[in-house]
Specification:
301 residues, alpha/beta, 46% helix, LysR_subst-bd, WH-like_DNA-bd_sf, transcription regulation
Length: 301
Amino acid sequence: MMVNLEWYRSFKAIYKTGTLTGAAENLFISQPGVSLHLSSLESYVGYKLFERTGRKMIPTEKGKVLYNFIVEPLTKLEDAEKHFQKSTEKHTPTISVGMCFETFQITLEQYISTLPFNVIIRFGEYPEMLDQLDKGILDLIITPQKGNSPNVEHEAFSSETIVLVGGTETDGQTFDSLVTKNDLAGMEAWLKQQKWYGTAGDMEHLLRFWQLNFGKRADFRPNYIVPNLNSIVRCLSGGKGLAIIPDFLCKKEVEEEKVKVIWEGFSKLTNTLYFGCRKNTQYASEIHIIKNLFKEVMVSI
């Protein structure tokens, strides 16, 4: 295990400001992020570096010794970074953005080369991305889930409806007549006779849609497990089979009559999509550019 340089930065900032909040503001990251860096460093060195007295962080004797060891080389490294930035014509910031893979492919992928700054795209589960945003690992996330961190603000910008879709060769007339009769048992039986597509480890859309419309948990697994939701749309195009996915991911294929919406459910299952970013961020202008790009793309989809 190696020491992360950011642990030392956070340690130095806490030492100089005397508080976790002051260190977080100094470093433009969240307070939980600073706290995580400190606990990781304390775990690594094997002893406490600060005594937590009220709101003040008082360095221990071991903490003072460590500070004296690292402050000069760390300051030199930070000076070197500043000198390097000044020696370039223009410092280009790097923004880390988190979202699901399918959303990236449909929205940002085709425009990413036009952005006037560096971008790192990260994929993952929404709770993980919310945690990484809070800790300063991510600068912006696109998510249907809101966190409860006081350091993060959410802005609603679009919505998605979860729908049952099928390939154009799928004969949905029998199902339509069952829906008209409100024959839940018949609808369930027909659906379970079809071939289903799903993605590895992600049954959320199917489970929620099934629970909302049939009042029970779906008791079957998809026949074909493919890498992601966009793969499902390609597999269904012009063929047979069913899947439950967000409508915006297949709007183009529906318009081209490669895929058709079989059913929206008795009650529509709709998710609000949010931008999530930290309240104190040094990348406000860059985040604003990405937000506007997303809004334009989602309106056109």
